[in-house]
Amino acid sequence: MSIVVTNLTKVYEQQKAIDNISFTAHQGEILGFLGPNGAGKSTTMKILSCFIPQTSGTAEVAGFDVVKNPMEVRRQLGYLPEHNPLYLEMYVKESLGFIADLHKLQNKKQRIEEIIALTGLEQEQHKKLNALSKGFRQRVGIAQSLIHDPQVLILDEPTSGLDPAQLVGIRALIRELGKTKTIIFSTHIMQEAEQLCDRAVIINQGHLVCDETLPDLMKKYPQHTLEEIFLKLIQPIQK
User: Fold this and answer.
1) What's the start-to-end Cα distance of the chain, in Å?
2) CATH number of residue 35's parent domain
3) Neighbours of 166 (CB within 10 A)
4) 219 found inside a domain
5) pTM of the full structure
6) Distance CA 189, CA 154 (A)
7) Coil, strand or helix: which one is 18?
8) Assigned domain for 134 exists
9) Helix (H, G, I), strand (E, B) or coil at 205
10) How confident is the model at residue 170 (pLDDT cuts 50, 70, 90)?
11) At what angle do helices 134-146 and 108-118 cross, to 10 degrees?
């Protein structure tokens, strides 16, 4: 298992952002990490990527504990946050070289060429990032997260704000990557999750309310779309 989350809790002052959640994700699986705004998705992803510590519980990425072995986790993990952090004055190849240097890659030139081909950036590679469309900037963000060939990818709303043509390209890329890597994929578009994901983990108000494969979930709620199921599962929790 590439990701193991066990009884994970995060408390900010008096508020529990996530409350005792557990789930796993396997290699070759795209896990849809779903929930309404404020459910705790970003908090969980930040813990998994070693940006913030949990209050209690454990999280492992590729067999490494996020607290005990954060540098090993970072070596195994590619992370694209919701707000793609790009240096817009850099050129595409320059930005990929910068990230490759951070990872101390030995085969830097070859790897950059491979990633440019994989992410469909051949025609854009000599442009500045501020000259790219949002779709191509997202591709650069994914390319940066892939440059060190991580086992695990965390993609936080990677298709937000894209036009229909851009959506098709990014979804196809994610689907291809999901054949060999473990992907945690967060989105608010349930139709997209239904098309892409093998498993759905849904959280609401910091609580886990669903952890099912997509086929099992659809069998449990026959004649319902994933969007309809999602809306049923995120009804307010009675306290």
Assistant:
1) 34
2) 3.40.50.300
3) 17
4) yes
5) 0.89
6) 17
7) strand
8) no
9) coil
10) confident
11) 140
